[in-house]
Automatic annotation (TrEMBL):
Source organism superkingdom: Bacteria
Pfam families for this protein: DUF4258
CDD domains linked to this entry: MqsA (cd12870)
Taxonomic source organism: Desulfosarcina ovata subsp. ovata
Name of the protein this chain belongs to: YgiT-type zinc finger domain-containing protein
C-alpha cells in the first residue's frame, strides 16, 4: 500500500523533475492567469527549475500541496504544486507575490485576522485577501454562451486575481440574461487549439 505517502508533501526534487519532463497538468485557474498576461508557462517552468518550497499547505479536501518560490529572471513567482498520486504534478495556481500580502517573496505580512467579517475575505485558491471591487468586464457563461457583464460587484483576490461573486449577484446576472437586457455586443477573439 502507498497510503502512508499520501499525506506527504511533494518534494522539490520531484516537482522539478516532473516540470522538466512536462509531466504536469495545470488548472483552469492558471489558464485564466495566462489570459491576463500575468505569467507564462515558460516562466512557471523557469521558476520551478530554480525553486524551493517555502510553505506546505494541508487542506481537508485537497490534501497536501507545496508552495514553491522560484524566479523567472528577476521576477519572483509562487507556484502551488501537488502530487495527484498517479504520477502527475498538478500545478494548482500561480501568482507574483505582491506587497499587499508579502513582506518579501518568502514572508507573509501578518494580518492578525483583523479583516475577518461577514464577507468572504480569503481566496480559496491562494489564501490571498479579497477586496470588494466593481469589475468592469466580468465574463459569464450560461449554457455555452459567453456574456460580458459590466460593473458587477465582486470580491477580487488581490494576489491571484480570482473573482468571487455573491449568490445575489449571480442571480441578478442570470435574470439580466433571461430578460435579454443587453446593452450592446462586443467582438471577442477566438482561439482554437490544433
Ligand atoms: Zn487568490
Amino acid at each position: 500500500m502507498i497510503m502512508a505517502l499520501e499525506n506527504d508533501a511533494p518534494k522539490i526534487e520531484w516537482i522539478r523533475e516532473k516540470a522538466k519532463a512536462s509531466d504536469y497538468h495545470i488548472s483552469e485557474h492558471i489558464v485564466r492567469y495566462f489570459m491576463v498576461k500575468k505569467v507564462t508557462i515558460r516562466e512557471i517552468e523557469d521558476a520551478i527549475a530554480n525553486g524551493r518550497i517555502i510553505e506546505t499547505h494541508r487542506h481537508p479536501a485537497r490534501g497536501v500541496s507545496a508552495l514553491v518560490l522560484g524566479y523567472a529572471g528577476e521576477k519572483p513567482i509562487h507556484v502551488m504544486c501537488a502530487d495527484d498520486q498517479h504520477g502527475w504534478l498538478l500545478i494548482l495556481f500561480t501568482y507574483v507575490p505582491g506587497s499587499k500580502m508579502w513582506k518579501d517573496p518568502v514572508n507573509r505580512i501578518e494580518h492578525g485576522g483583523k479583516r475577518m467579517g461577514e464577507k468572504l475575505n480569503k481566496c480559496f485558491f491562494c489564501g490571498g485577501m479579497i477586496e470588494q471591487v466593481q469589475v468592469g468586464n466580468f465574463d459569464y457563461r450560461l449554457e455555452g454562451q459567453l456574456y460580458v457583464v459590466k460593473d458587477i460587484p465582486a470580491g477580487l483576490c488581490v494576489q491571484c486575481g480570482e473573482k468571487y461573486i455573491t449568490a445575489k449577484a449571480s442571480k441578478k446576472i442570470n435574470s439580466l440574461i433571461e430578460d435579454e437586457r443587453f446593452v450592446g455586443t462586443e467582438d471577442v477573439f477566438v482561439l482554437k487549439y490544433e
